[in-house]
Amino acid sequence: MFIENLKLAGLLLIVGLILNDTARAQVETVIAPSNRSAVGLEKNLLFYANQRYQVSQSGSGQVNLSFMFDGNQYPAYSNTGIDPNNPYVLLIENLPNIHVQTGGWIGWTTRHYQPKRFKIEVLNIYNGANSWITMSDVSGYGGGHYIAKTPNVSIGKIRITIYETTDPQNRLGLSEVFFLHPEAVKAYDSLVVQYATNGNVGIGTASPKAKLAVEGNILAKEIKVTNNIAVPDYVFEPDYQLTSLSDVEAYIKEHKHLPEIPSARNIEQEGLDLGEMNLLLLKKVEELTLHLIEKDKKLNILEDRVEDLESKLLERTTEFSN
């Protein structure tokens, strides 16, 4: 009997361990992004929020917004302390109307001068609710980072109000403000590039309309095009009909630009295809070269005729002198 009870106890222990491991395996956790960790921001909706959404500051103790949304946890500090009667308020608006479903987290991280008394509110816009919800109202906090789970709503705005910090002069420090939204964000959306479902890639744009779309300037040491390029060397073929300069002049007077070259208005409206334009300019250079060669031939003939006339004139002058 003792042996049977011992076996039963052992079996129950094994089952208990299995169930315990299974239960622990189902626990879902989020590691808070912070200045003391290197994980957790890949699903951040607020990368470059100051450029993609509407972000504003009010109250006292304002900081450099660009530091708070760039994915780099280098902190920004306010030059003056926060007046608790005129607290610092960070408002982020025009967020995409995408429900957080079962998981969303909002928080901040910094190195020093962290918020001590603060409040985080979100505007629920699901089904037109347009109601503010206080998700965190914290006092006496001393941690270097903070993260809280959002309510299960669609968040259109985030408002963070800070009354007090850990700095004796009540100055504020913030490295990153984040909104982790797993179902709305592809990994590192808007931090570097945007990948569209059709394979297009965008930098600085959420809707790339080409294989690579860049919203801004490009600096490169070299750009090389390798494609089936129709270089206009056909201009030098014997049967090429070169437009006369008089016809070119007439066209310019009427249209105010060269033949085949798009007008300024057309470029303003439709943009400029650099590859096509380079080939058109090459064609114009080749045509101009042919015109110069023809003019040079005529000039040589004229010079020969002038020399011949001068020679004859000299002969006549010599005859009259004698």
Observed structural traits:
322 residues, alpha+beta, Jelly Rolls, three-stranded antiparallel beta sheet, coiled coil, Discoidin domain-containing protein
Summarize, please.
The protein is α+β, with helices and mostly antiparallel strands. The chain has helices at residues 2-25, 49-52, 245-255, 264-270, 274-321, and strands at residues 54-58, 76-77, 88-93, 105-109, 115-124, 131-138, 145-149, 155-165, 173-174, 176-180, 194-195, 201-203, 212-214.
Textual characterization of the structure:
This is Discoidin domain-containing protein. Keywords: Coiled coil. Residues 285-319 form a coiled coil. It comes from Sphingobacterium haloxyli. The protein is of the alpha+beta class and 322 residues long. Among the domains are: 49-184, Galactose-binding domain-like (Jelly Rolls); 233-321, no CATH class. The protein has five helices and 13 strands. It has helices at residues 2-25, 49-52, 245-255, 264-270, 274-321, and strands spanning 54-58, 76-77, 88-93, 105-109, 115-124, 131-138, 145-149, 155-165, 173-174, 176-180, 194-195, 201-203, 212-214. The chain has a five-stranded antiparallel sheet. Strands 7-4-10 form a three-stranded antiparallel sheet, with no helix packed on it. Strands 11-12-13 form a three-stranded mixed sheet, with no helix packed on it. A hairpin with a 5-residue loop joins strand 11 (194-195) and strand 12. The N and C termini lie far apart (159 Å). Mean pLDDT is 85; it is low at 21-26.
